[in-house]
Protein backbone atom coordinates (compact mmCIF):
# COMPACT_ATOMS: atom_id res chain seq x y z
CA UNK A 1 0.00 0.00 0.00
CA UNK A 2 2.89 2.35 0.81
CA UNK A 3 4.23 1.54 -2.62
CA UNK A 4 0.90 2.47 -4.26
CA UNK A 5 0.73 5.69 -2.29
CA UNK A 6 4.23 6.71 -3.38
CA UNK A 7 3.34 5.87 -7.01
CA UNK A 8 0.28 8.10 -6.91
CA UNK A 9 2.32 10.87 -5.29
CA UNK A 10 4.93 10.53 -8.02
CA UNK A 11 2.22 10.74 -10.67
CA UNK A 12 1.03 14.01 -9.16
CA UNK A 13 4.56 15.35 -8.99
CA UNK A 14 5.21 14.62 -12.67
CA UNK A 15 2.65 17.23 -13.71
CA UNK A 16 4.45 20.29 -15.11
CA UNK A 17 4.70 22.85 -12.36
CA UNK A 18 5.70 25.70 -14.63
CA UNK A 19 3.04 27.80 -16.33
CA UNK A 20 3.28 27.81 -20.13
CA UNK A 21 3.91 31.55 -20.14
CA UNK A 22 7.34 30.92 -18.61
CA UNK A 23 8.53 28.66 -21.40
CA UNK A 24 11.73 29.88 -23.05
CA UNK A 25 12.22 32.91 -20.83
CA UNK A 26 14.02 31.34 -17.88
CA UNK A 27 17.53 32.56 -18.83
CA UNK A 28 18.57 36.03 -17.72
CA UNK A 29 21.81 37.69 -18.73
CA UNK A 30 22.06 39.71 -15.50
CA UNK A 31 21.76 36.72 -13.24
CA UNK A 32 24.65 35.11 -15.12
CA UNK A 33 26.94 38.13 -15.53
CA UNK A 34 26.33 39.68 -12.12
CA UNK A 35 27.41 36.37 -10.57
CA UNK A 36 30.52 36.22 -12.76
CA UNK A 37 31.41 39.81 -11.87
CA UNK A 38 30.94 39.11 -8.15
CA UNK A 39 33.18 36.04 -8.38
CA UNK A 40 35.97 37.29 -10.61
CA UNK A 41 35.97 41.01 -11.22
CA UNK A 42 38.31 43.50 -9.66
CA UNK A 43 36.82 46.27 -11.81
CA UNK A 44 33.13 46.04 -12.59
CA UNK A 45 31.96 48.08 -15.59
CA UNK A 46 29.22 45.54 -16.29
CA UNK A 47 25.79 46.14 -14.78
CA UNK A 48 24.48 49.71 -15.04
CA UNK A 49 24.73 51.41 -11.67
CA UNK A 50 26.88 54.25 -10.33
CA UNK A 51 29.53 53.37 -7.76
CA UNK A 52 29.40 56.99 -6.51
CA UNK A 53 26.79 58.17 -4.01
CA UNK A 54 23.51 59.90 -4.86
CA UNK A 55 23.51 63.67 -4.20
CA UNK A 56 23.48 64.77 -0.54
CA UNK A 57 20.13 66.56 -0.86
CA UNK A 58 18.50 63.26 -1.83
CA UNK A 59 20.13 61.17 0.89
CA UNK A 60 19.23 63.83 3.47
CA UNK A 61 15.62 63.79 2.28
CA UNK A 62 15.48 60.02 2.81
CA UNK A 63 16.98 60.33 6.31
CA UNK A 64 14.43 63.05 7.15
CA UNK A 65 11.62 60.83 5.84
CA UNK A 66 12.74 57.99 8.07
CA UNK A 67 13.56 59.87 11.26
CA UNK A 68 11.26 62.88 11.09
CA UNK A 69 8.03 63.62 12.93
CA UNK A 70 5.74 62.16 10.31
CA UNK A 71 5.63 58.50 11.33
CA UNK A 72 3.00 57.85 8.68
CA UNK A 73 5.88 57.77 6.20
CA UNK A 74 6.53 54.27 7.58
CA UNK A 75 3.05 53.11 6.52
CA UNK A 76 1.31 52.44 3.20
CA UNK A 77 0.69 55.48 1.10
CA UNK A 78 -1.63 55.99 -1.89
CA UNK A 79 -1.37 52.85 -4.04
CA UNK A 80 -0.85 54.60 -7.38
CA UNK A 81 1.76 56.97 -6.01
CA UNK A 82 2.58 58.91 -2.85
CA UNK A 83 0.65 62.22 -3.22
CA UNK A 84 3.68 64.57 -2.91
CA UNK A 85 5.52 62.54 -5.56
CA UNK A 86 2.72 62.35 -8.14
CA UNK A 87 2.05 66.06 -7.60
CA UNK A 88 5.61 67.14 -8.29
CA UNK A 89 5.99 64.67 -11.18
CA UNK A 90 2.82 66.12 -12.75
CA UNK A 91 4.21 69.62 -12.35
CA UNK A 92 7.66 68.72 -13.61
CA UNK A 93 6.57 66.69 -16.64
CA UNK A 94 3.74 69.14 -17.30
CA UNK A 95 6.40 71.80 -17.72
CA UNK A 96 8.56 69.59 -19.95
CA UNK A 97 5.65 68.53 -22.14
CA UNK A 98 3.88 71.88 -22.15
CA UNK A 99 0.56 70.48 -20.97
CA UNK A 100 -1.50 70.42 -17.78
CA UNK A 101 -1.14 67.07 -16.04
CA UNK A 102 -3.45 65.71 -13.37
CA UNK A 103 -1.32 64.08 -10.64
CA UNK A 104 -4.09 61.59 -9.87
CA UNK A 105 -4.76 60.33 -13.40
CA UNK A 106 -1.71 61.16 -15.53
CA UNK A 107 1.01 59.76 -13.25
CA UNK A 108 1.52 56.37 -11.63
CA UNK A 109 4.46 55.37 -9.43
CA UNK A 110 6.04 51.92 -9.79
CA UNK A 111 8.81 49.77 -8.31
CA UNK A 112 11.43 51.09 -10.70
CA UNK A 113 11.05 51.45 -14.43
CA UNK A 114 11.12 47.66 -14.58
CA UNK A 115 7.67 47.38 -13.00
CA UNK A 116 6.42 50.22 -15.19
CA UNK A 117 7.42 48.19 -18.26
CA UNK A 118 5.79 45.07 -16.84
CA UNK A 119 2.54 46.96 -16.20
CA UNK A 120 2.52 48.27 -19.79
CA UNK A 121 2.93 44.85 -21.41
CA UNK A 122 0.38 43.23 -19.09
CA UNK A 123 -2.08 46.05 -19.60
CA UNK A 124 -1.92 46.42 -23.39
CA UNK A 125 -0.75 43.17 -24.96
CA UNK A 126 -3.24 40.41 -25.76
CA UNK A 127 -2.54 36.91 -27.05
CA UNK A 128 -0.95 37.18 -30.48
CA UNK A 129 -0.53 40.96 -30.46
CA UNK A 130 2.69 42.10 -32.06
CA UNK A 131 5.05 44.49 -30.29
CA UNK A 132 7.87 46.13 -32.25
CA UNK A 133 11.23 46.23 -30.46
CA UNK A 134 14.24 48.12 -31.80
CA UNK A 135 17.52 46.18 -31.60
CA UNK A 136 19.77 46.37 -29.65
CA UNK A 137 17.27 46.62 -26.77
CA UNK A 138 17.18 46.51 -22.97
CA UNK A 139 16.84 42.76 -22.64
CA UNK A 140 13.68 42.47 -20.51
CA UNK A 141 11.36 43.80 -23.25
CA UNK A 142 11.36 40.48 -25.10
CA UNK A 143 10.46 38.12 -22.20
CA UNK A 144 7.92 40.62 -20.85
CA UNK A 145 6.11 40.76 -24.20
CA UNK A 146 6.15 36.97 -24.39
CA UNK A 147 4.89 36.58 -20.82
CA UNK A 148 1.92 38.73 -21.76
CA UNK A 149 1.18 36.39 -24.70
CA UNK A 150 2.48 38.83 -27.32
CA UNK A 151 4.81 38.37 -30.26
CA UNK A 152 7.94 40.54 -30.31
CA UNK A 153 8.84 41.80 -33.79
CA UNK A 154 12.42 43.03 -34.07
CA UNK A 155 13.86 45.79 -36.21
CA UNK A 156 17.57 46.61 -36.03
CA UNK A 157 19.48 49.85 -35.81
CA UNK A 158 21.98 49.46 -38.64
CA UNK A 159 25.51 50.89 -38.30
CA UNK A 160 27.09 52.99 -41.03
CA UNK A 161 30.86 53.19 -40.96
CA UNK A 162 32.01 56.77 -40.35
CA UNK A 163 34.18 58.45 -42.97
CA UNK A 164 37.86 59.41 -42.60
CA UNK A 165 38.69 56.73 -40.03
CA UNK A 166 36.84 58.68 -37.33
CA UNK A 167 35.47 56.87 -34.29
CA UNK A 168 31.90 55.70 -34.74
CA UNK A 169 29.15 57.50 -32.83
CA UNK A 170 25.88 56.03 -31.58
CA UNK A 171 24.25 58.41 -34.10
CA UNK A 172 25.75 56.23 -36.88
CA UNK A 173 23.33 53.47 -35.85
CA UNK A 174 20.03 54.19 -37.57
CA UNK A 175 16.72 52.62 -38.44
CA UNK A 176 15.98 52.04 -42.10
CA UNK A 177 12.60 53.80 -42.44
CA UNK A 178 11.33 51.34 -45.09
CA UNK A 179 12.36 48.35 -42.98
CA UNK A 180 10.67 49.89 -39.93
CA UNK A 181 7.48 50.57 -41.90
CA UNK A 182 7.44 46.94 -43.11
CA UNK A 183 7.10 45.75 -39.49
CA UNK A 184 3.87 47.70 -38.86
CA UNK A 185 0.53 46.03 -39.63
CA UNK A 186 -2.98 45.57 -38.21
CA UNK A 187 -1.49 43.09 -35.77
CA UNK A 188 0.86 45.67 -34.22
CA UNK A 189 -0.31 46.80 -30.80
CA UNK A 190 2.70 48.75 -29.59
CA UNK A 191 6.28 49.80 -30.23
CA UNK A 192 8.87 50.09 -27.50
CA UNK A 193 11.10 53.13 -27.87
CA UNK A 194 14.16 53.57 -25.66
CA UNK A 195 15.81 56.92 -26.15
CA UNK A 196 18.49 57.51 -24.94
CA UNK A 197 19.09 53.88 -25.79
CA UNK A 198 20.68 51.25 -23.59
CA UNK A 199 23.16 49.78 -24.68
CA UNK A 200 24.36 52.06 -27.54
CA UNK A 201 23.68 55.45 -25.96
CA UNK A 202 21.85 56.55 -29.09
CA UNK A 203 19.68 59.66 -28.65
CA UNK A 204 16.99 59.57 -31.33
CA UNK A 205 16.77 62.77 -33.36
CA UNK A 206 13.53 64.64 -33.96
CA UNK A 207 13.48 63.37 -37.56
CA UNK A 208 13.89 59.76 -36.44
CA UNK A 209 11.16 60.16 -33.83
CA UNK A 210 8.82 61.69 -36.41
CA UNK A 211 9.18 58.62 -38.63
CA UNK A 212 8.20 56.41 -35.69
CA UNK A 213 5.38 58.74 -34.63
CA UNK A 214 3.87 58.87 -38.14
CA UNK A 215 3.76 55.06 -38.27
CA UNK A 216 2.19 54.88 -34.79
CA UNK A 217 -0.54 57.28 -35.87
CA UNK A 218 -1.09 55.60 -39.25
CA UNK A 219 -1.47 52.11 -37.72
CA UNK A 220 -3.06 53.21 -34.43
CA UNK A 221 -0.18 51.80 -32.40
CA UNK A 222 0.77 52.57 -28.79
CA UNK A 223 4.24 53.76 -27.83
CA UNK A 224 5.90 52.53 -24.65
CA UNK A 225 8.61 55.14 -24.28
CA UNK A 226 11.38 54.08 -21.91
CA UNK A 227 13.12 57.37 -21.08
CA UNK A 228 15.03 56.36 -17.96
CA UNK A 229 18.21 58.06 -19.24
CA UNK A 230 16.41 61.30 -20.18
CA UNK A 231 18.87 63.54 -18.27
CA UNK A 232 22.01 61.76 -19.44
CA UNK A 233 22.66 63.41 -22.81
CA UNK A 234 25.97 64.89 -23.92
CA UNK A 235 27.59 67.41 -26.24
CA UNK A 236 24.59 69.74 -26.02
CA UNK A 237 22.26 67.11 -27.50
CA UNK A 238 18.57 67.46 -26.69
CA UNK A 239 16.39 64.64 -25.42
CA UNK A 240 13.14 64.88 -27.33
CA UNK A 241 10.05 63.29 -25.82
CA UNK A 242 8.06 61.43 -28.46
CA UNK A 243 4.87 62.20 -26.48
CA UNK A 244 5.35 65.85 -27.45
CA UNK A 245 5.06 65.08 -31.18
CA UNK A 246 1.80 65.48 -33.06
CA UNK A 247 -0.75 62.76 -32.31
CA UNK A 248 1.48 61.00 -29.79
CA UNK A 249 0.37 62.13 -26.31
CA UNK A 250 -2.80 60.01 -26.46
CA UNK A 251 -0.92 56.88 -27.42
CA UNK A 252 2.29 57.12 -25.36
CA UNK A 253 3.30 56.01 -21.89
CA UNK A 254 6.48 57.72 -20.70
CA UNK A 255 8.56 55.64 -18.29
CA UNK A 256 11.13 57.13 -15.91
CA UNK A 257 13.34 56.03 -13.04
CA UNK A 258 14.68 57.78 -9.94
CA UNK A 259 17.43 55.16 -10.04
CA UNK A 260 18.95 56.74 -13.15
CA UNK A 261 17.72 60.29 -12.52
CA UNK A 262 19.24 60.61 -9.04
CA UNK A 263 21.94 57.89 -9.14
CA UNK A 264 20.04 55.71 -6.67
CA UNK A 265 19.23 52.48 -8.52
CA UNK A 266 18.72 50.57 -5.27
CA UNK A 267 15.74 52.67 -4.25
CA UNK A 268 13.68 51.24 -7.10
CA UNK A 269 11.36 54.20 -7.54
CA UNK A 270 9.99 54.54 -11.06
CA UNK A 271 7.00 56.20 -12.71
CA UNK A 272 4.74 56.33 -15.73
CA UNK A 273 3.29 59.50 -17.24
CA UNK A 274 0.55 59.45 -19.85
CA UNK A 275 -3.12 59.97 -20.68
CA UNK A 276 -5.71 58.51 -18.32
CA UNK A 277 -7.10 56.30 -21.10
CA UNK A 278 -3.81 54.34 -20.95
CA UNK A 279 -2.77 54.82 -17.33
CA UNK A 280 -6.04 53.53 -15.90
CA UNK A 281 -5.12 50.08 -17.26
CA UNK A 282 -1.65 50.25 -15.76
CA UNK A 283 -3.39 50.96 -12.44
CA UNK A 284 -5.40 47.74 -12.88
CA UNK A 285 -2.22 45.69 -13.27
CA UNK A 286 -0.55 47.55 -10.40
CA UNK A 287 -3.46 47.09 -7.97
CA UNK A 288 -3.49 43.37 -8.74
CA UNK A 289 0.21 42.79 -8.33
CA UNK A 290 2.49 45.18 -6.43
CA UNK A 291 -0.15 47.65 -5.21
CA UNK A 292 2.02 49.82 -2.93
CA UNK A 293 5.55 51.16 -3.39
CA UNK A 294 7.91 52.10 -0.54
CA UNK A 295 6.62 55.32 1.01
CA UNK A 296 9.81 56.86 2.44
CA UNK A 297 11.72 56.44 -0.82
CA UNK A 298 8.87 58.15 -2.70
CA UNK A 299 8.86 61.00 -0.20
CA UNK A 300 12.62 61.54 -0.71
CA UNK A 301 12.31 61.41 -4.51
CA UNK A 302 9.46 63.93 -4.31
CA UNK A 303 11.76 66.30 -2.39
CA UNK A 304 14.50 65.72 -4.95
CA UNK A 305 12.15 66.81 -7.74
CA UNK A 306 10.94 69.81 -5.73
CA UNK A 307 14.55 70.97 -5.51
CA UNK A 308 15.14 70.31 -9.20
CA UNK A 309 12.02 72.21 -10.24
CA UNK A 310 13.28 75.27 -8.35
CA UNK A 311 16.73 74.99 -9.91
CA UNK A 312 15.52 73.99 -13.37
CA UNK A 313 18.08 74.97 -16.02
CA UNK A 314 20.44 76.50 -13.43
CA UNK A 315 24.06 75.37 -13.08
CA UNK A 316 23.41 73.98 -9.55
CA UNK A 317 20.71 71.64 -10.86
CA UNK A 318 21.64 67.96 -10.51
CA UNK A 319 20.12 67.39 -13.94
CA UNK A 320 22.77 69.75 -15.33
CA UNK A 321 25.65 68.64 -13.11
CA UNK A 322 25.29 64.88 -13.48
CA UNK A 323 25.53 64.80 -17.32
CA UNK A 324 28.46 67.21 -17.16
CA UNK A 325 30.36 64.85 -14.87
CA UNK A 326 29.35 61.80 -16.85
CA UNK A 327 30.45 63.36 -20.12
CA UNK A 328 33.98 63.68 -18.68
CA UNK A 329 33.89 60.06 -17.58
CA UNK A 330 32.67 59.06 -21.04
CA UNK A 331 35.52 60.94 -22.71
CA UNK A 332 37.99 59.37 -20.35
CA UNK A 333 36.83 55.83 -21.13
CA UNK A 334 36.67 56.62 -24.85
CA UNK A 335 40.33 57.69 -24.81
CA UNK A 336 41.37 54.77 -22.69
CA UNK A 337 39.69 52.21 -25.00
CA UNK A 338 40.84 53.92 -28.18
CA UNK A 339 44.45 53.90 -26.94
CA UNK A 340 44.47 50.09 -26.67
CA UNK A 341 42.57 49.49 -29.92
CA UNK A 342 39.23 48.47 -28.39
CA UNK A 343 37.39 50.93 -30.62
CA UNK A 344 34.61 52.73 -28.73
CA UNK A 345 31.32 53.85 -30.27
CA UNK A 346 30.91 57.33 -28.77
CA UNK A 347 27.54 57.44 -26.98
CA UNK A 348 25.38 60.58 -27.26
CA UNK A 349 23.60 59.66 -24.04
CA UNK A 350 23.15 57.13 -21.15
CA UNK A 351 26.04 55.93 -19.05
CA UNK A 352 26.97 53.09 -21.36
CA UNK A 353 29.54 52.75 -24.06
CA UNK A 354 29.84 49.93 -26.61
CA UNK A 355 33.32 48.98 -27.86
CA UNK A 356 34.59 46.82 -30.72
CA UNK A 357 36.68 43.84 -29.54
CA UNK A 358 37.82 42.65 -33.01
CA UNK A 359 41.46 43.56 -32.39
CA UNK A 360 41.53 41.30 -29.33
CA UNK A 361 40.35 38.20 -31.17
CA UNK A 362 43.74 36.50 -30.98
CA UNK A 363 43.39 36.28 -27.19
CA UNK A 364 40.00 34.56 -27.26
CA UNK A 365 39.82 32.68 -30.55
CA UNK A 366 36.48 32.00 -32.19
CA UNK A 367 34.83 28.57 -31.94
CA UNK A 368 32.92 28.53 -35.24
CA UNK A 369 30.14 26.09 -34.29
CA UNK A 370 29.65 27.28 -30.73
CA UNK A 371 26.05 28.07 -29.72
CA UNK A 372 27.39 30.92 -27.62
CA UNK A 373 28.03 34.20 -29.45
CA UNK A 374 31.68 35.25 -29.60
CA UNK A 375 31.22 38.42 -27.53
CA UNK A 376 29.65 36.44 -24.70
CA UNK A 377 32.61 34.05 -24.53
CA UNK A 378 34.95 37.04 -24.78
CA UNK A 379 33.26 38.89 -21.89
CA UNK A 380 33.40 35.76 -19.72
CA UNK A 381 37.06 35.21 -20.57
CA UNK A 382 37.84 38.86 -19.84
CA UNK A 383 36.28 38.86 -16.37
CA UNK A 384 37.90 35.54 -15.46
CA UNK A 385 41.38 36.34 -16.84
CA UNK A 386 41.64 40.12 -16.59
CA UNK A 387 39.23 40.89 -13.76
CA UNK A 388 37.36 43.42 -15.91
CA UNK A 389 33.58 42.97 -16.19
CA UNK A 390 31.51 44.13 -19.20
CA UNK A 391 28.35 42.89 -20.91
CA UNK A 392 28.27 41.31 -24.40
CA UNK A 393 26.24 43.27 -26.95
CA UNK A 394 24.58 40.06 -28.17
CA UNK A 395 22.64 40.06 -24.86
CA UNK A 396 20.68 42.98 -26.32
CA UNK A 397 19.54 41.04 -29.40
CA UNK A 398 16.83 38.41 -29.80
CA UNK A 399 17.86 34.75 -30.11
CA UNK A 400 17.83 34.69 -33.91
CA UNK A 401 19.95 37.85 -34.24
CA UNK A 402 22.55 37.28 -31.51
CA UNK A 403 25.28 36.56 -34.03
CA UNK A 404 24.59 39.62 -36.20
CA UNK A 405 26.68 41.93 -34.03
CA UNK A 406 28.77 39.67 -31.85
CA UNK A 407 32.10 41.49 -31.58
CA UNK A 408 31.13 44.29 -29.21
CA UNK A 409 30.94 44.63 -25.43
CA UNK A 410 29.18 47.24 -23.30
CA UNK A 411 30.86 49.16 -20.49
CA UNK A 412 29.15 51.29 -17.83
CA UNK A 413 31.08 54.51 -17.12
CA UNK A 414 28.99 55.82 -14.21
CA UNK A 415 31.95 55.06 -11.98
CA UNK A 416 34.37 56.84 -9.66
CA UNK A 417 37.58 58.11 -11.25
CA UNK A 418 39.54 55.44 -9.35
CA UNK A 419 37.39 52.67 -10.89
CA UNK A 420 37.87 54.02 -14.40
CA UNK A 421 41.59 54.39 -13.77
CA UNK A 422 41.78 50.78 -12.57
CA UNK A 423 40.00 49.71 -15.79
CA UNK A 424 42.52 51.74 -17.79
CA UNK A 425 45.41 50.04 -15.97
CA UNK A 426 44.03 46.60 -16.83
CA UNK A 427 43.59 47.57 -20.50
CA UNK A 428 47.07 49.10 -20.76
CA UNK A 429 48.73 46.07 -19.17
CA UNK A 430 46.76 43.76 -21.47
CA UNK A 431 47.84 45.76 -24.49
CA UNK A 432 51.51 45.62 -23.40
CA UNK A 433 51.30 41.84 -22.97
CA UNK A 434 49.79 41.54 -26.44
CA UNK A 435 52.51 43.64 -28.04
CA UNK A 436 55.41 41.98 -26.13
CA UNK A 437 54.20 38.47 -25.36
N1 LIG B 1 14.89 50.59 -18.84
C1 LIG B 1 16.18 50.67 -19.19
C2 LIG B 1 16.53 51.04 -20.60
C3 LIG B 1 17.18 50.39 -18.27
O1 LIG B 1 18.47 50.44 -18.65
C4 LIG B 1 16.83 50.03 -16.95
C5 LIG B 1 17.86 49.71 -15.89
N2 LIG B 1 19.04 49.16 -16.33
C6 LIG B 1 15.46 49.96 -16.62
C7 LIG B 1 14.53 50.26 -17.59
C8 LIG B 1 15.01 49.57 -15.24
O2 LIG B 1 15.10 50.64 -14.37
P1 LIG B 1 14.81 50.52 -12.80
O3 LIG B 1 16.09 50.17 -12.14
O4 LIG B 1 14.28 51.84 -12.40
O5 LIG B 1 13.79 49.43 -12.63
TrEMBL record:
MF (Gene Ontology): cysteine-S-conjugate beta-lyase activity; glutamine-phenylpyruvate transaminase activity; kynurenine-oxoglutarate transaminase activity; pyridoxal phosphate binding
GO BP, sorted A to Z: kynurenine metabolic process
GO annotations of cellular component type: cytosol; mitochondrion
Protein name (database record): Kynurenine--oxoglutarate transaminase 1
Aminotransferase class I/classII large domain sequence ranges: 43-423
Pfam families with a match to the protein in the record: Aminotran_1_2
Sections of the chain in a coiled coil: none
Domain of life: Eukaryota
UniProt keyword annotation of Acetylation present: no
Family: Belongs to the class-I pyridoxal-phosphate-dependent aminotransferase family.
Oligomer and partners: Homodimer.
Subcellular location as annotated: Cytoplasm, Cytosol
Primary location class: cytoplasm
Documented EC number(s): 2.6.1.64, 2.6.1.7, 4.4.1.13
Amino acid sequence: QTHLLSLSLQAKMSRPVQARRLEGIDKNIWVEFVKLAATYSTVNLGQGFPDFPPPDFLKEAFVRALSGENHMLHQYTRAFGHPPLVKILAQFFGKLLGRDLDPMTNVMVTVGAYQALFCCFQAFVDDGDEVIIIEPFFDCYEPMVKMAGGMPVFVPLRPKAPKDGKLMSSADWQLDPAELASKFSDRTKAIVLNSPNNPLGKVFSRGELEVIADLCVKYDVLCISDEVYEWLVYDGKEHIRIASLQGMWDRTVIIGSAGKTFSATGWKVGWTVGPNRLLQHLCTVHQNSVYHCATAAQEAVAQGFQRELKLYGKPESYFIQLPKELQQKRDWLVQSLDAVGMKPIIPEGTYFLVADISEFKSDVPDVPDSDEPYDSRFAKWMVKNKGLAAIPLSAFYCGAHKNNYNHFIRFCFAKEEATLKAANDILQKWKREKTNP
